Each structure stands twice: as C-alpha cells, then as structure tokens.
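Supplementary Methods S3. Input chains for the assembly prediction are listed below.
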Amino acid sequence: MKKPLNIGMIGYGFMGRAHSNAYRKVNNFFDLNHQIVLKAACARDAAKVKAFADNWGYESVETDWRQLIERKDIDVIDICTPNNTHKEIATAAAYAGKMVLCEKPLSMDGPEGKKMVEAIEKAGVPNMVWYNYRRVPAVTLAKQLIDQGRLGRVFHYRAKFLQDWTINPELPQGGAGLWRLDVAAAGSGVTGDLLAHCIDTALWLNGPIDSVCAMTETFVKERKHTQTGKVEKVGIDDACAFLCRFSNGSLATFESTRYARGHKALYTFEINGENASIFWDLHDLHRLQYFDHRDEGIVRGWRSIHVSDGDHPYMGKWWVPGLQIGYEHSFVHQVADFVAGVEKGQPAMPDFRDALRTQFVLDAILQSASEGRWVTVAKE
Amino acid sequence: MKKPLNIGMIGYGFMGRAHSNAYRKVNNFFDLNHQIVLKAACARDAAKVKAFADNWGYESVETDWRQLIERKDIDVIDICTPNNTHKEIATAAAYAGKMVLCEKPLSMDGPEGKKMVEAIEKAGVPNMVWYNYRRVPAVTLAKQLIDQGRLGRVFHYRAKFLQDWTINPELPQGGAGLWRLDVAAAGSGVTGDLLAHCIDTALWLNGPIDSVCAMTETFVKERKHTQTGKVEKVGIDDACAFLCRFSNGSLATFESTRYARGHKALYTFEINGENASIFWDLHDLHRLQYFDHRDEGIVRGWRSIHVSDGDHPYMGKWWVPGLQIGYEHSFVHQVADFVAGVEKGQPAMPDFRDALRTQFVLDAILQSASEGRWVTVAKE
Amino acid sequence: MKKPLNIGMIGYGFMGRAHSNAYRKVNNFFDLNHQIVLKAACARDAAKVKAFADNWGYESVETDWRQLIERKDIDVIDICTPNNTHKEIATAAAYAGKMVLCEKPLSMDGPEGKKMVEAIEKAGVPNMVWYNYRRVPAVTLAKQLIDQGRLGRVFHYRAKFLQDWTINPELPQGGAGLWRLDVAAAGSGVTGDLLAHCIDTALWLNGPIDSVCAMTETFVKERKHTQTGKVEKVGIDDACAFLCRFSNGSLATFESTRYARGHKALYTFEINGENASIFWDLHDLHRLQYFDHRDEGIVRGWRSIHVSDGDHPYMGKWWVPGLQIGYEHSFVHQVADFVAGVEKGQPAMPDFRDALRTQFVLDAILQSASEGRWVTVAKE
Amino acid sequence: MKKPLNIGMIGYGFMGRAHSNAYRKVNNFFDLNHQIVLKAACARDAAKVKAFADNWGYESVETDWRQLIERKDIDVIDICTPNNTHKEIATAAAYAGKMVLCEKPLSMDGPEGKKMVEAIEKAGVPNMVWYNYRRVPAVTLAKQLIDQGRLGRVFHYRAKFLQDWTINPELPQGGAGLWRLDVAAAGSGVTGDLLAHCIDTALWLNGPIDSVCAMTETFVKERKHTQTGKVEKVGIDDACAFLCRFSNGSLATFESTRYARGHKALYTFEINGENASIFWDLHDLHRLQYFDHRDEGIVRGWRSIHVSDGDHPYMGKWWVPGLQIGYEHSFVHQVADFVAGVEKGQPAMPDFRDALRTQFVLDAILQSASEGRWVTVAKE
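Predicted structure tokens for the full assembly:
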C-alpha cells in the first residue's frame, strides 16, 4: 500500500495546470512508494479556484494560502504564483514544516533568494524549484553524454530563448496571464522568465559562470495596465543578450526576446567540445543533435537522435520507440524524481540553493546591462 | 454535476495503457458533460490485471470478458485484445447493449468485419475504432485544409510506415507483446498492423480507393514461437508495398515494413494537389509541412507549421504556442470526440462501418500480393 | 604538354550548356593528360548554333551532324539531341571511329539500344551515357559505403523523382525545351526522362532488377503542339510508379511525376540494409544521410553528412570543407572520369552496354503499365 | 565584338583559384559587353605561378607585382595576397590607373583602410572588395525582401560563423594556407577573417552599427611557426563574440570561432522584423528560410525557399528550377556585377569606401575586447 503524499497547490494558472497534470500522471507511469494526492488548491478567487479544483480533482479549496499552510493534512506546498510572492509563501511554508516546490525563478533577486535558501535550509524540508527543462529526456541525455566525458574540453556554449508574443503594442500588462509584463510582479522581463531557464540548464551542463556582459532593451515603452486601466511605463526588459565566460574556460553567448517573429518558444542550446558537440531545440524537444569527431571521417555528420528508445532517460516509462512525448512530461519526470529523492533521502535538483546560483547570474546580467560593463557573478 | 461514463477495459497491453491514460486525462482538458470512470479492467491473468487496475485506478477487475459484458454498471466496452478476438467480444458487447470501442484493425478480414458492422448496427450502440492518428492535431489540420478545398484536384498520394524492430531473426513470435508476429492472432503482418493506419488516414483525406496492386515479403521465414517453444514458419508479411488508384483519379504508392533500418515508427503521408501539397511525419508529429503554389513566386516554399497554436485543432485545450504535445494525446482527443459525439448524437468517426472500408482495402492488398495482379476493392 | 581531345557537340539546349561548362572547367580542376578542346558545335539552326559556339568558345560550327562526324579533327561526338535521334547519330559516329558520349536515355527502347550497343562495340570506340547523378559526390559516397559492405543484406530500396512544371494545361508540347512532352521525340514521359535516372542509380547501387509492376497516368490528355499549332493528344506518361524486386532479394518502390506540387526536381533514394541505411536528396545534393545501427544505442541517429571534405569523392579537387558545389559539377566529374578512363584504358561507366540495362527496365515498366501485370525484365 | 577586359591576378592560393574560375565562367553565363581575358598571373615563386597560370590559362606570368602594375595590357589588378600586403599593392595599382579588386578584409585596420580609400578615390578607378556572400542568390534575395519593406521595424539581428579546423594544437601557424593563423600577416584571427563577412552582410542588410561590446579568446596560446620553425606565441583571436546596437534600433549578437566542433563553415544570419523574419545558412546556401506573420494563422510557418527559380536573383542565368549552384558562383556573380557596373558607370558594391565601414566595426570589436567595455564605432 502506497503512502499518500498530499499536495497543496497555490495558483491555478498555466503552471498550476502543468503541475496538476504531472501529479495526476506520475503514479501511472513511475514506480514510487508514495501515492500523490491532490489535497487542496488555493487562490484568492473562490469561484475560480473551485472550478480549478473540480477540474483537476483536488479534494478541497482554500482562498488564503496561510490557511493552506496551517493544514495538517498537507505535505507539500507547490507555489505557482507570481515571482513577487515566492519568498513570503516559501518561507512560511518551510517554517510550517512543509516540503516546498517553487516555480522559477526562485526569487525577485539574489539577496531575496539567499534569504529563502537560509529559511528553507534552516527548516530542513525537502525543496525544489521547477526548472523543468532539465528533465526533457533529450536534455537529460545531453547531461549524461557530458558527464561521460564525451565532449572533452569545452570551448563554447550558446543558448537562446526566442518568442514573439508581445510584438503587438496593444497587448496590455498586468493581471491574469500578463503579470509577466508587469515589473512589479515579475521582477524582470525575459531575463527572469526565459533566460533563467537557459542559465539553469547551462550551469547544470557546463558549470559556473564567472562574469557576464549584457544589454537589454524595452521595445514597447508603454502599455496599458489591466489593473489600473491606465497606460503605464513598461518596466521589464523585452530583450536581453549577454556574453559570458564560464569557469571551465569556455565562452558563451545568450539571448532572449519576445520580439523574434516566427519563434513561439524557441529555446535552443549548443555546446562545442574538443571531441564532440551537442545541440537541442525546444520546438523539437524529442530530438538531440550530436556530432562526434571520433566518428570515421567520411561518414561523420550531425546525428539526429530521436530520443524515444527505452534506454533513453525516462523513455522506458512511456510508449514504444518512435513515439514522442511532449512538453508536459518534463513536469511528470520532475515530480517522479522529487518523490523518489524524498524516499531515498537524496534530494532532486535543482533545490533552492542550486536555483539561487541562477539568481546571482540574473542579478549580474541586469546590473551589467544597466551599467554597460562586465560584471562578476556573485558566489554564495 | 457530470454524468458518469463507466469504462470496462479488456486487455492491459500497450493499447490498454494508452487508452487508460486517455480516459484519465480527458476530463482535465476537455469540457464534457460526462465524467469518465474507470470502472473495471478485464484479462485472463488475475494477477496481471489486478496490477494493471491498481496502477491506473480501475475500481474493479474481471478475468472473463463475458462477465464484464454482463455487468450493469458498465457503459462502454473497450477492446484492446489481439485481432482474432475482436469479433466475438464486440458482437457480444453490442448484443448486451454496450457502447463498443475496438482497437484497430477492426477484424481479421472484410467478411468478418461486415458481420461485426451488422451486429453493431443492429444493436444500435455507439461504436468507434481506434485509428488514433486522425486526431494528431497536424493530421486533423491536414483534413481541414483539404476540406477547405485548398489543394484543388489531387494528383498523388503517398504514404509509408517504416519500422526496424524485427530485423533480428532471434526475435520470437507469439505471446505478450509479440502476438503481432503470429499470423493466427494478428491475421497479417505489417498490412493489418501498419498499413491499416495509412489506409484509414488516406480514405479519410482522399476518399475511396478503387483498385490496388501489391507485393509482400517475409524476410525471416521461421521464428521460434513463444507458446510452443518450437521454431515455426512465420505466416505474416514482414513488408508490403502497393500501388493504387483512388476514385478521385489520383495515383498512390503505399509501403510498410519492419525492416527499414533507422526508422522506428516513420509513418509519413503526402498529398499533391493542383494548388497545394501537404506532408506529415509521425517522427515529428507536431509539425505539418504545407506548400501553396498561390504564394508569391520568389517567397514560395514548403512551410513548416509548428502545430501548437490555440487555433490549431485541439491545441487550444493544452499548453501555449510552441509547446508540443505527443503521441498519447491523439487518444485523449479520440475519447473527447467520442464522448462529445455521444452527447450530441453525432457519432465520432471512424465507426465500425467506416473502419470496414479499410478492411476491404486490406483484403484486396493481400489478395493482390498473393495472386500477383491488380485487384478491385470491394464496396460494402 | 597535354594532348588535345577535340569535342564535337551536337545540340545547344540545356544539356549542351551543361556539357560545355563541364568541358571548359575540367582541366582547371582535374589533372589529366589531355586538354579538352571545344572544336565544333553542331545544330540545324545556323544562327543559334553560331551564338552558342561564340558563347562557349567552340572554334567552329556545323549545321549537319553528318559533316561533323566526317571531320578528322574531331575526337569525341557528344549527342545532346532528342532521344529519337540518338541511334542514328551514335551509330554513324561509332562507324566513323569517334568516341561517343550520348545523353540519356540511351535509346527509344531496349531493342534500339541493343543495336546501338552492337554498333558501338563493333566499332570499339570509347563510349559513355550521361547518367550524371552517379557523380554527385554524395551519391558516389553512397556507392563507396555500399561497396565496403556497410549495409549488410539489403531489404528495401525506394526512389522517386518529383517535379511540378507541367501542371498547367496551357503548357504546349513539342519544340525547343518542350520536346520532352512530345512522345514522338521523347519516346515516353517521366519514365524515360526521370525514372531512367532513378533506375541507373539503383542498378549501380543495388544490382539487377528482376521484375516490375507499374502504373502510368497522363493527367492532361491534350496539349497544343508547338510545331503543328494544333491541340493534339498527349502521348507521354505524366506520372509513373512501380513496384519491383531486385535480384538480391530486396523490394522496391519507384515513382516519378511532373504533377507533384512543391517539388522542382526532388530526386531521392533510400536503401535500407540489415546494418545501415542511406538516404539522398537532389534538392540538397551536397548532403548524405546515413544511419548505422552499430553506433552505440543512446547516440544512434541519422547522420547528416555535409559531403564537402577533402576525403569525400571528388571534393579534394574543389574548395575547402563546408563549401558546397552544385548540380553542374556532376558533369565535370563525368568528363574527368571519361578522359581518365580513356587514358588508362579503363572505360568510365555507364557505357552503352551498362545504360542498355536501364533501357530494358524502362521497357518492362511501360509494358507492365500497359498490360496491368508484373513483367520480367529482359536480360541482354 | 566584345571588348577585352584584361585581368592581372596577384596570388595563386584559395582565392586566386576562386577568382580565376569566376573569370573563366562569367562570359558563358552573363551577357556582358566585355570579354574577360586572363592576361597575367603574378607571384614571387616563379615555378608555382607558372603552374597556376598554365592551369587556368593565364597568358603570361610575373614574379614582381610592381612589374605587373606597370604593364599597359592590364586593366584590372586583383589582389589575392595576405592582408598585410593589400594597402601597398592597391595604392600602387590605383596610382597606375588600374581598376582594383581586393580580397577582404580591405586592410589591417581602419586607419590603413582609410588611406586606401583616399588613394583609390583620388585615382578615380573602379574598385571593389570581395565580400562574395552578398551574391549568394539566397542572400541577395534576402536583401530584396528587406528593401521591399517586408520586415517592418527590425528588432533583432544575429549572425555567427563557426568553423572547427584549428582545434588541433599541432597545426602550425604561418606560410602557405596557414597565414591566417599568423597575426603579422592576417592582422587578426576570426575577427578579420570570418566576422568581416558577417559584418559586411549585416551592414548591407540592416544598416550601420553604432556600438559594440566584444570578447575574444585564443585557446591555443602557442603554435609552431612554419617560417621560423619555432614554437611562437599565437597573436590572433581564435574566437570572438560581440553584442551590438544598430542605428535602426535593433539589437544583435555576433559570434565567430574556429573551435566549434562539427561546423566546417557555418555562416548563418537571422533578422527578426515586426512582420517577417529571414534566416540563411552557408551550409545550405541555396535555401532561404522566410517567415511572414501576415500569412493566415493556421498555415503560418517558416518557408524553406529553394532559391533555384528563374525569378530568383542570378538564377535565371544558370540551370533549371530545383538544381542548385554552389559556393563558387557567388564570385561569378560578383565579377558579372562589377563588369556590368563598369559598363554602366554604376559601380558594384562593396567598393573600398563601403568595405571601410566593416573595417571600422572590426577596429571597434578588437578595441572593445581588449578594453572590456562598449566601444562606439567610428564613422568615416
């Protein structure tokens, strides 16, 4: 008989749905000692959270997250609210002894994140941040190949995350679904939203970043705010690009924007090593491109690996070779790894401390862009 | 309050899993008046069906499908057993007044299928066959584009379904997971297993087929049978290719094999019309390739459509643009359409009668290959 | 000091240009003992052949090919005229002791081709047919890989050659540039024009074809004839597809059409062997796709080989790795190989005898399509 | 009767070959009033230049470029020697009244280039710099699309030029074929060699660059010098990446390296405009990727344009649709445009003055990388 693991979900937006789906699926596909239970959903809008709870099968609802945290029947608090609420909720949840799963980015900035790490570590509760792309099977495979030493000395890393959904200047800022355009709620624009993903993956695959030099731009300077009804200055960065140097001596370029016409969610990364190179693309997330210089010369070429075989990461749990999975599965894998980690006493990464490293890079980027100079990334 | 729709599942193999996953997900993503309930799972092996039921949350188990059919608390019988059992189960279920969902191919051959259609139509119960690829969003989009008349007169259709998993002659035939290699259980090889999918899609997109000319081959002549333990003659076709003519005047080539090294499940189809062409590939199922000759000359080219926008078929129900779904979602869409069809009194296709048309083409293919000549496809 | 090799060119159309370009380039890039000399160009239209000769630097012109053949200062007769003239010219040229280079297809049919082979072999002159695609470096590489035994037992071959330039029914038949639509000049439609290429490559890569089963179609039944000014019946096949069996036991599908909207000259072939597979595409002729099952499982995938390295066939003669060559270079390679073959006494393939094998397959295809049954391919 | 245009070629390396091929081909494919004549080839090594001249059909040789420049029978001096010789030769040739074609980059740095511009403009002779990629048909098409205003406001530009041929530390520097690794001859590494191409294209397509922020790296610090025989410090940059801002308000990233395993000559650029985006890739130079947001939503996607139709730039001069040309043709086009420009009195771009703008950007890049800060690009 499996032990229940009771989830208390805060938020019902895009991430609330993605996580709920993962919770509902994980026990069907992964062999865990715990049974995930959708115990309670929480949000301020009673009607909306009720509808959300009904849709996903949450057993109960709350309209005050403080009430949720006090409930004895909740094991895990999952924070799917805007960035400016993470710290308060996570800290309180940790203090209440709950496991804490927090959406990314961890915090509004590094110093705030540092306090969250201190709180969560003091509480000693299992914790994790939802940098889900690590668990796209092709990305996990990339990590395996790197850990096996196949690349040799790394010379270059390049990543970008391109979207095009905010080109229309009539799009407002703030409110449901649009809080990412409101600097008060989001902290920053593409830097915290998209580059945070790129940096998390990069730190995982290629180690620490020493220094960065960035530029940002806000193409649409004013947008109507949905909460005030007024046209207000846009405080977020619409685009951000930066150069950086990793501790392993490799050079990198990163770029993110919501103004790259033709790209919906084109997150790509490439690593060039002495012996081999790797490329991945979120728009075809089930493939990994791999080049190995040790292949015989006349048949050397980039290999397009259809990451759907039983011996590829996570894929033995799903269908049969050739049949792809999608975006949502990365969350299922993250839940599976978190629960397995709790069971084995080996936490699944990234935890708050690990996610804080991304926060320091984000701080350096924004500072660099603001000051127009190279900035050294803070260490913990 | 939603009305329950109680599922009785027969079988627990690959399709049993795919359908169960669909049942569990459909109410989370689609707005239906019914709530799917996993009422009972049925298979001869009590231990295995119990484990399956526990894993997926079926409320009860049966070890005799006749018992399942007699249960008053079952609304829908879902047949996920080998092909040679479809007729008996489906007929009995229809007779018992159950809705019937049957895995493809419908039957062992056309005459058998015809009897199934007669039985099911006499019973007057909703029914459907699991040709799931119609509901991959990119394929549904292809259908929309064709129905809108974008292609003009059609000249060519070509489809193939290539796999490579049976090249090893040590692979046995028969038994769990391998009944597809045993002609007694499967009826045929790639013809009924893979070409059936290609034909279903083709009839849907391009109308009736008049005549076919086929060849088949069995590359590995003998394989150990897992049930007898002896090396036995292989009765299935390992590969099948055929030419055909559609009623609309277009010409076509079809091919399927399990000996195409490098392809795991490469189902592709292409339609060439007077004005436009369409191409799709299961290995990248979230994309549709579209060429429109009416585009201005200097910027004319094949468009790679990332079928993940809210106005693409089914995609408004899932995530956000750029984030792909996978293989399993086609089953969720089929359940959603079936239930909505039941609610509206408009059955979702393909029903048994529609699937019978594929059966007649399969018969003509096998006859043509056997006799080495062109064969006219039987009409109902 | 290089010995001159004097070319007498007959025709000034598309192939006349392609060959002339090859003659002018070959000594710049290949180390040969002979210097190609553009001695004379010949065609009935005096003004046009004069302009052609001036453009390409031919030293003289003739308006009667019989005169050209009688000239003592001509070593090689290059036949770039419509198919229905090949036999007479080639036979006369051989009788006059000239080397003969003949455009493809060799002849109007097998029996005619057989007489040409007899004549040319009796004359004992070097001869070759312009199946140029063998010498696209990626195709030559495919041949090397096959000859090295990398594929193991071959199961499947599939080829197609798709165009879309005759969909418009207003396009006339006959005359300059359009003789390919006139059955009197061309002998057949896509079968002799396009499938001939596919078959030549296939015989070269995969050995003899035993039997074929074909269908053809003429979508536009009547077209204005440019020479009579009248609307006349179209005698060529607009499309042709066939199944076949090779002597090595492999199965194949071939297809060609000029009604595949979106494809300009999409010649593709694929070979599936026990151990490896190969795919090539004329629209990206500088690449070869290669899959090797012996690659380690988790990094197995189709390799996209950019065939531009110095150790790739012919490529050491051109630029540097990464810089592609184009269509026209296949002719340069063929001239280089022909001249080198003459110098070494080892003729370059395909010679007339080799090209006759393609002719027999073409005959079988047209007979099969006409009679609606399988036809055995004639052997010499 | 065409007027002769007599070429005096200095150098016989990679570019000497590429230009000679272009000179030999241009009159066969382009209708010009002049006939190119390969009058003389010049280089210090008498035996080598003689062999080169014989191979390409130059009528005479010189071993001192000053002698060549003094010859009355030379109209055009083509400079294909290392970068550190451009100024002296170009200035002398201009003074002697010759037209001057100079390999890129124009000069060792901006100030040197400025003097060259002054000298050439004072002499009033036609002049051009070999930034050949502008005349790859797909790139020229990109320029057309931009000039037609299809993109709208431009937000982003990104380009890279990746190679992998210097990863091996045993590769020496200096001497034939390797002078690009010797800072004394080359001036810089990938910046002047590869980024110069990227910048020339970018300025042409997207207008002036205001400011840059760069980083460079030399991965292999010491290499044997082929001329001294000693291991010497490597003075060039092995890799360079930079951020920049264009005058039109768009942001850009550029990167170049010779340490990107798997890429031979991967020059790519992408432009994202308000309404449309464009992408090009040298490894498949005959294609242009184009996305137009004004396409109907459900069939919107990146179009892969096979730039081989008669109405595509330059392509009407070559073969038929679907048949690609290669790298070398960009030089043929440049010669054709130069000669046509001379005939019409409208110089073909880029001339020295235009190429100087690239030089100023290169200077800013190297300064920025050296000083670790943003640098404003000098205007003329």
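The CA atoms of residues 8 and 353 of chain A lie 22 Å apart. The first helix of chain A runs from residue 14 to 29.
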